[in-house]
Specification:
Elements lengths: L8 E4 L2 E6 L7 H13 L1 H13 L4 E8 L2 E10 L9 E7 L14 E6 L2 H12 L4 E11 L13 E4 L5 H11 L5 H9 L4 E7 L2 E11 L3 E9 L8 H15 L3 E7 L3 H10 L2 E11 L3
Parallel strand pairs: 5-6, 11-12
Antiparallel strand pairs: 1-2, 2-3, 3-4, 4-5, 6-13, 7-12, 7-13, 8-9, 9-10, 10-11
Helix pairs in contact: 1-2, 4-5
Length: 288
């Protein structure tokens, strides 16, 4: 389908592999193909579509295409700013032969995988050649209007944060162990993509959550954190319900990721209405 374009092409096991390292190689045929898959299955293709649309200068990807269907992809996003500057996030989905040779080996990595045990094993082996590998399994959970159950507690107020909450957010992030400099705090609170929410107890910021990716079809929620002295009273549940409700009100689904061993968090999300849609292998590695 894409012969004669600018894309480097390879035939692997009868499938066409399109290799794209920069957005400059992306033509309308591929944009339409990726968008079609995203619209049909936003929970699977949201990161691929979002990064190509908003961060093409730091994104590269590899597609396996069979006819007019994407059967697998590797998405590599190189962080050029923020706390993870110099690191990369890699998403691997489906059938991608030789994937271990596509992964960068000279920087810290987070790899998110939904692939066969053979592919996962090959990636773990490759990362192990770089240094120690941390391997965890995460649940991807989603919520939509028909299953959402709102949560209200008269002792807890939850709302979207604003620039006026910058000092409180910075304090909570420092307590969390992921401090942000003042400029980054302001940038996130003012961003059209990042929307931080907070749950307040007696006027004090007790819990936070954010959307770090927003599209009309899906919001991705993360950075859910409750300060130690406010745990167990529903603050995390309140703030997650608040951001989820806004996502659903906008017409989108809500999606989040949680360590499958974090049973308290999984219970909270289930009570709000979240359902498990897939299980992912998450790998972390840094060069020795």
């Amino acid at each position: 389908m894409h012969r004669g374009t600018h894309h480097p092409l390879m035939m692997i096991n009868g499938e066409l592999t399109v290799v794209l390292r920069t957005h400059s190689n992306l033509d309308m045929d591929l944009i339409r193909l990726i968008k079609r898959h995203y619209i049909a299955n936003p929970l699977t293709y949201v990161y691929l579509f979002y990064d190509l649309m908003y961060y093409p200068e730091v994104t590269e990807f590899y597609l396996n295409i069979n006819g007019s269907d994407i059967t697998g992809f590797v998405l590599i996003w190189h962080a050029a700013w923020g706390p993870r500057r110099g690191c990369s996030s890699v998403h691997i989905y489906g059938s991608v032969d030789g994937v271990e040779g596509l992964i960068p080996t000279d920087e810290c990595l987070e790899v998110h995988m939904v692939a066969s045990s053979e592919i996962t094993g090959a990636v773990i082996k490759r990362l192990g050649e770089m240094g120690p590998v941390k391997h965890r399994r995460f649940l991807t959970m989603a919520c939509w209007g028909s299953v959402f159950r709102d949560y209200r507690n008269p002792l807890i107020g939850a709302r979207r944060l604003s620039i006026d909450d910058a000092v409180d957010l910075a304090r909570v992030k420092a307590e969390q162990g992921t401090p942000l400099d003042p400029g980054e705090v302001i940038l996130r609170l003012a961003s059209p993509h990042w929307h931080y929410y907070g749950a307040f107890v007696n006027g004090e910021l007790a819990s936070i959550a954010t959307t770090y990716l927003k599209l009309p079809e899906v919001w991705v929620i993360g950075d859910v954190y409750t300060r130690a002295r406010y745990r167990g009273i529903g603050a995390g549940k309140a703030v997650t319900a608040a951001v989820t409700k806004d996502a659903l009100t906008s017409g989108a689904m809500a999606m989040l990721h949680v360590d499958e061993d974090n049973e308290p968090a999984v219970r909270v999300y289930r009570r709000i209405g979240y359902r498990v849609v897939r299980v992912e292998d998450w790998l972390a590695s840094s060069p020795s």
